[in-house]
């Protein structure tokens, strides 16, 4: 089976350090064929038209804000979905999945249109780089060999590249529109950390998910039917991760639905209760939650232990910049701070200091238990992520920067603050990008044709 990722380009967010969240566009919605027009969803039934005057007539299956989706587009994407997931290529599967794949194409039109509106451009070189990355992931000797493999499988290369272009465009939109709005407060981090610590002794689950969104209550039944169909196919051998990559509407889709370790009580109550009854290795039935249907696979289970945060070990890099007599310490402090903010590893920090801060000295401390570092300094370092520097600190020797070079967290310890911030930020990112695309759907004129 060829491996594809519907949201393979990662969006990088900063919550004190780099947070990488793979974004999964809400690719599927629940369309069961032609619908009459209404103000709520902007859908309408239209007649068959030719794609272009003077060319051979081709059936148009949908028009999104005056941009057409052809039957050829739909057929190519259907083949891509079936080859990727390993679903059986049967008329029944095609009938169930076709409306959902069409909505994927509709969403991608909306994504590309929004990127264009914001003057965001996706170059052919960016698409080619992503195609080459995917070829390497599939162990192809070259992008050309991978293209030939796709064609032999009946997958048009253009279908995959069009999908990649929309993915990259949407990630750029998210970076510009959503990422700057996400803030995670110290209070939120403290609250989440306390909840994690309080769960000591309770089970946690290594969880994989597929999420099918329900934007319109009228489409709830269609969503449930799709989720039922996916569960049935997975039970009969379809790859869960591949199905998640193609059909899940959660940010975890690019990672095959991998949610990592999820503690009891972390999900909404109805989902949490169902999870407690789900044996390891078994796929759940579709579970109705806020916003849509969830399908879970528990890959492993363990008990949360209450570790000591003081047992976390850190390696710390240090830069000391002498302050010459009569120097403007405020201006020097700004220069030092800029170097700290733009260096994302201890090696980069040392190189930048050597090049830009005359007389500076650098050193790296070996791994040290956080509890063995003096109190205020330990508190300061404990709040840093790997590759993140402090603000300049005034010392007798001059201005000092500290950076965490590496960190080892004992199993069972409360997670570092940056990891908790990443967790909260990723959840918020997922919610906001799905809401943003939902709003684009509602504002669009979408004409689905029989």
From TrEMBL:
Domain PpiC: 202-300
Name by which UniProt lists this protein: Parvulin-like PPIase
InterPro entries according to UniProt: OMP_Chaperone_SurA (IPR050280), PPIase_dom_sf (IPR046357), PPIase_PpiC (IPR000297), PPIase_PpiC_CS (IPR023058), SurA_N (IPR015391), Trigger_fact/SurA_dom_sf (IPR027304)
Keyword annotations from UniProtKB, A to Z: Chaperone, Isomerase, Periplasm, Rotamase, Signal
Signal sequence interval, chain numbering: 1-29
Lineage: Bacteria, Pseudomonadati, Pseudomonadota, Alphaproteobacteria, Rhodospirillales
GO terms assigned for molecular function: peptidyl-prolyl cis-trans isomerase activity
Any Pfam family matching the protein: Rotamase
Source organism of the structure: Nitrospirillum amazonense
Database matches in PANTHER family: CHAPERONE SURA (PTHR47637)
Keyword Isomerase on entry: yes
């Amino acid at each position: 089976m060829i491996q594809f990722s519907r949201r393979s380009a990662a969006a990088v967010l900063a919550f004190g350090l780099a947070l990488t969240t793979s974004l999964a566009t809400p690719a599927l919605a629940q369309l069961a064929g032609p619908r009459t027009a209404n103000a709520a969803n902007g859908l309408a039934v239209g007649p068959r038209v030719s794609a272009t005057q003077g060319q051979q007539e081709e059936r148009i299956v949908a028009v999104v804000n005056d941009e057409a989706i052809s039957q050829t587009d739909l057929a190519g994407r259907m083949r891509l979905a079936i080859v990727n997931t390993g679903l059986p290529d049967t008329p029944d599967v095609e009938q169930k999945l076709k409306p959902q794949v069409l909505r994927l194409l509709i969403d991608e039109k909306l994504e590309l249109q929004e990127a264009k509106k914001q003057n965001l451009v996706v170059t052919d070189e960016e698409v080619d780089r992503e195609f080459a990355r995917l070829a390497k992931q599939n162990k192809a000797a070259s992008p050309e060999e991978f293209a030939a493999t796709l064609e032999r499988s009946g997958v048009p290369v253009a279908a995959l590249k069009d999908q990649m272009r929309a993915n990259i465009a949407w990630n750029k939109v998210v970076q510009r529109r959503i990422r700057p709005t996400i803030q995670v407060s110290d209070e939120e981090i403290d609250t989440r950390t306390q909840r994690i610590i309080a769960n000591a002794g309770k089970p946690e689950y290594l969880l994989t998910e597929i999420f099918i969104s329900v934007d319109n209550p009228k489409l709830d039944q269609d969503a449930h039917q799709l989720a039922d169909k996916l569960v049935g196919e997975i039970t009969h051998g379809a790859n869960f991760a591949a199905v998640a990559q193609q059909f899940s509407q959660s940010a975890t889709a690019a990672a095959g639905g991998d949610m990592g370790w999820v503690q009891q009580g972390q999900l909404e109550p109805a989902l949490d209760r169902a999870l407690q009854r789900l044996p390891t290795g078994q796929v759940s039935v579709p579970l109705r939650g806020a916003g849509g249907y969830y399908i879970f696979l528990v890959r492993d289970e363990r008990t949360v232990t209450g570790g000591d945060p003081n047992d976390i070990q850190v390696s710390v890099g240090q830069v000391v910049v002498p302050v010459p007599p009569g120097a403007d310490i405020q201006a020097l402090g700004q220069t030092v701070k800029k170097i700290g903010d733009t260096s994302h590893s201890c090696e980069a920090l040392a190189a930048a200091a050597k090049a830009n801060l005359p007389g500076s000295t650098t050193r790296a401390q070996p791994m040290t238990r956080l509890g063995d570092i003096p109190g205020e300094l330990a508190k300061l370092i404990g709040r840093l992520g790997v590759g993140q520097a402090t603000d300049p600190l005034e010392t007798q020797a001059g201005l000092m920067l500290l950076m965490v070079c590496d960190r080892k967290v004992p199993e069972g310890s409360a997670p570092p603050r940056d990891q908790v911030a990443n967790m909260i930020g990723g959840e918020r990112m997922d919610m906001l990008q799905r809401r943003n695309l939902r709003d684009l759907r509602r504002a669009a004129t979408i004409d689905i044709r029989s």
